[in-house]
């Protein structure tokens, strides 16, 4: 039987690391805080993907690995699959979760000029809330990057929340 | 069947209740009986609450916590500082979690500290971590005891390297208890006595009640 804990345990940890790193250690250095939160996610993704692929043959190509993230990996984490997968056939994949669980209790009102992309944290510095949401998203971005890196795929991952409650993760595989 | 005639009901007593259309009713009813129940807000068991809350695979939780501890060790360098930080994070979580706990458990005011610790062990631990603790080692005046945890999802797959000997890996739990109790007016001191990561057979938390702060209402009568 799969061992479970209350979802609020994970949410509490997530809230707390974001608040510790953003308000405590690196209050005036959001980029440093972001890097730490991403690093924690990376560690988690790396280990989870190690566990979930133990009994599988190696993935034959990038697409197979990405599909694994969308289906099995996402289901283990969020009890649902990614809803939509797109690619430009040049190493970029967009994974859309129509109702991303970790944002369901975060309230944000993205303004029109703010796309909600977390690639440039300074761009959303004007809105504390948007910044906090951006910070939360470094964690799942790190998880995806860690999981793929464990599968031998170095990449960069960013998130886009311009379509709340949907959330898109953009994976750029390094050539 | 028609409406009950209230007067009949009153004067006839239970033996000879008659309906408004003057028929004897033998108590039979072909329709559906609904159980109403009298205790509408009974406290719920830890098992019942855990079964009803949203749950996640504990690996995600365990590994996330492990990664946080690891990152803190890198950033803060001193093990003692990490212990403090974990306790502080736990405290903040406890302060917030107590609302969820009270809302979901329907627990009413505990009569004494003994009942409080029992509720933490049997309901609190269960509804969040899916395990229960036991309470032992009471002192004579009932203000300090031990919570024994034999199974702890926080330490699945964890082994401490020699460089972390002074680390109280589960310090977040003691912080949560301290924070949550402070929200219900109890100042406590919570510390680890036994730790499975240090070779003990169980986890043992010592909980000491320092002060029971009388509840302060947020308003005064003349305001």
Automatic annotation (TrEMBL), chain A:
Stated name of the protein: Uncharacterized protein
Species classification: Eukaryota, Viridiplantae, Streptophyta, Embryophyta, Tracheophyta
Domain of life where this protein originates: Eukaryota
Automatic annotation (TrEMBL), chain B:
Top-level lineage group: Eukaryota
Name of this chain's protein: Uncharacterized protein
Organism the protein comes from: Vaccinium darrowii
Lineage of origin: Eukaryota, Viridiplantae, Streptophyta, Embryophyta, Tracheophyta
């Amino acid at each position: 039987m799969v061992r479970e804990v209350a979802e609020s345990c994970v949410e509490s940890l997530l809230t707390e690391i974001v608040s510790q790193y953003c308000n405590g250690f690196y209050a005036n250095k959001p980029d440093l805080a972001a890097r730490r939160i991403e690093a924690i996610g990376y560690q988690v993704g790396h280990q989870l993907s190690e566990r979930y692929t133990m009994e599988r043959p190696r993935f034959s190509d990038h697409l197979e690995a990405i599909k694994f993230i969308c289906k099995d990996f996402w289901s283990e984490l969020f009890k649902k699959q990614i809803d939509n997968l797109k690619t430009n056939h040049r190493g970029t994949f967009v994974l859309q979760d129509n109702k991303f669980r970790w944002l369901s209790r975060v309230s944000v009102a993205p303004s029109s000029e703010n796309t909600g992309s977390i690639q440039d944290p300074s761009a959303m510095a004007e809105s504390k809330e948007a910044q906090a949401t951006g910070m939360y998203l470094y964690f799942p971005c790190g998880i995806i990057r860690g999981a793929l890196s464990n599968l031998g795929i170095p990449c960069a991952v960013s998130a886009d929340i311009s379509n709340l409650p949907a959330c898109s993760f953009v994976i750029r595989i390094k050539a | 069947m028609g409406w009950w005639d209230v007067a009949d009901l009153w004067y006839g007593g239970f033996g000879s209740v008659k309906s408004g259309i003057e028929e004897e009713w033998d108590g039979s009813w072909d329709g559906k009986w609904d159980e109403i129940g009298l205790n509408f807000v009974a406290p719920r068991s830890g098992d019942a609450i855990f079964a009803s809350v949203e749950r996640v695979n504990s690996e995600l939780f365990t590994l996330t916590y492990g990664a946080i501890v690891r990152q803190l060790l890198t950033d803060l360098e001193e093990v003692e500082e990490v212990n403090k930080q974990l306790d502080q994070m736990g405290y903040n979580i406890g302060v917030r979690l107590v609302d969820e706990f009270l809302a979901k458990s329907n627990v009413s005011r505990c009569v004494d500290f003994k009942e409080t610790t029992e509720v933490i062990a049997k309901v609190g631990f269960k509804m969040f971590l899916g395990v229960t603790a036991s309470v032992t080692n009471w002192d004579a005046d009932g203000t300090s005891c031990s919570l024994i945890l034999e199974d702890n999802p926080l330490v699945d797959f964890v082994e401490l390297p020699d460089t972390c000997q002074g680390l109280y890996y589960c310090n977040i739990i003691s912080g949560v208890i301290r924070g949550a109790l402070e929200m219900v007016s109890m100042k406590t001191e919570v510390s680890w006595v036994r730790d499975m990561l240090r070779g003990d057979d169980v986890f043992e938390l010592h909980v000491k009640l320092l002060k029971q702060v009388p509840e302060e209402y947020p308003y005064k009568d003349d305001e």
